[in-house]
Amino acid sequence: MSLWDVNGNLSVFRPEARTSSEIRLLGWNVPPEELQTIPEHWLTHPEPDASLHYLLGMLYIAFTVVALIGNGLVIWVFTAAKSLQTPSNMFVINLAICDFMMMLKTPIFIYNSFNRGYALGHFYCQLFAVIGSLSGIGAAMTNVFIAYDRYNVITNPFEGKMSRGKAILFIIIIWIYTIPWAVFPAMQIWGRFVPEGYLTSCTFDYLTDNFDTRLFVGVIFTFSYLIPMSMIIFFYSQICSHVFSHEKALREQAKKMNVESLRSNQGNSTETAEIKIAKAAITICFLFVAAWTPYGVMALIGAFGNKALLTPGVTMIPACTCKFVACLDPYVYAISHPRYRIELNNRLPCLAINEKPISDNASSTSDATQVQTTTVA
Hints:
By secondary structure, the protein is mostly helical. The chain has one domain (50-376): Rhodopsin 7-helix transmembrane proteins (Rhopdopsin 7-helix transmembrane proteins). It has 14 helices and 2 strands; from the N terminus they run ααααααααββαααααα. Strands 1-2 form a two-stranded antiparallel sheet. Strand 1 (193-196) and strand 2 (201-204) form a beta hairpin. The longest helix has 46 residues, at 211-256. It is globular. Mean pLDDT is 80; it is low at 6-12, 266-270 and 360-377. It is a multi-pass membrane protein. The chain crosses the membrane at residues 52-79, 91-111, 123-146, 167-190, 215-236, 280-304, 316-335.
């Protein structure tokens, strides 16, 4: 279907060209003045079945309930319990706030989905995208500082302890780094926020075919994906390397001393510290890659590749992966934390967590076990 009529006018913006008896195009129910804010790429695709809109709406309702409860509990317990009010845990709280923020925008998507399109219009599209940018990039950079903190504690156990002032400074840096990527497109200083996919969600423009858009996509891809991912992978790879070396040294020393292990509690542990740390590191890296790689690839294809690959349905996948990871984060970072489970059990005994208090013996184990506790928690 051609976008241009015989008179050289952009027919895709004309209401009569969008509501034929044979097929309805995306945006058929959008007022003409609102159509101008939608990339032409989406307006050439047929409207999806109503069932797809409703399915996505219900999926987002489930994401919202799970994420708000999980992250809400993390924020509440970590801020209320004195035993959890450590400088390092301030990053966990900040991550939970970012994930909580990400889900606060979902009512816009849900309303649009059940109204089958761009129902709330331009203002709420901008609000949706601003919150998404702040929460998404903020979470990515928070993950970086969580990785840095754990790397610092493990590689410098006596000097690497985070102070409260340093943690506050790092959190301020996170938000200073994050805010411009929401402000510039919102104010159209550089880039812009536009609807995407089924026109029920909004993100930065990666489809407009000009140098400015391609430059913006390249820069934001570097600063919001490549840099955080590279730093996370570096810190966790160093953690694993350090623990593996430590474990090897312990085994060699035990062999020289003709004993099975240098750890008094080795028999009580079903997994070695190196296995638990490897699992934690792999899980954390996987979650970040799973959440943001689809968006990064999609943006690069839109700006530099074959736009025909980007169908409305395909672009819904990255949006869902980000929300899914926002649901998982509180469980990976907090529910695996034994002291968090204890505090949660004390405040909500109806959950029947039945976490046993941490004994003095468990807290006075060897360096490798301390590494395990710090990293997994």
